[in-house]
Amino acid sequence: MFDVGRVLIQWDLRHLFAKLIGDPQEVEWFVTNVVTEKWHHQHDEGRALADMMPERIAQFPDYAAHIRAYASRFNETIPGPVPGSHEIVRQLAAQGVPLFGLTNFGEEFWAGFRPTEPLFDLFKDIVVSGTEKCAKPGPRIYEIAEARFGIAPQHLLFIDDKAENIAAARARGWHGHVFEDAARLEQCLEGHGLLG
User: Fold this and answer.
1) In this model, does residue 125 exceed pLDDT 90?
2) Are residues 94 and 38 part of one domain?
3) pLDDT averaged over the chain?
4) Which of 75, 83, 128, 146 has its CA 20 to 30 A from that of 6?
């Protein structure tokens, strides 16, 4: 079971906003204070962009166009695949290993991104936090994944880049791997007898 952002795809708000803001220091200020990962997480938790955007524009009216670009050009925050990860997914699929996803991803953004990435055609199912209106590391989304996938916890191996999300999975009896890079993931999968 794979997380998506920073495991299978790169994600960086700067990748979009560096195109819109010429000064690198201002870009850093913007992603630290205006369109931040913490604020973005509200959409991961199921909050609609229609509710989030007017609030933020009211707070930072000088950046209204940039905040609107966050909604309309979200796919530009995704530079491309994480090196090596897609190859591993394809190897697992070729060996008949059932693949699932569990991702913190806003429902509206997922609807715009998912059709651009054929890799996910290899997955049996993907639980998306924005659709479920609950996010990792909260226990509810793990419960939903278990129920949807129909696999006993001890047979699940979850790969995520955040240690707290893996800790929550292990607390439920899942196996877990904190993703750092494809080489270490490959070693983990070989150790579990899933690649080789």
Assistant:
1) yes
2) no
3) 98
4) 146
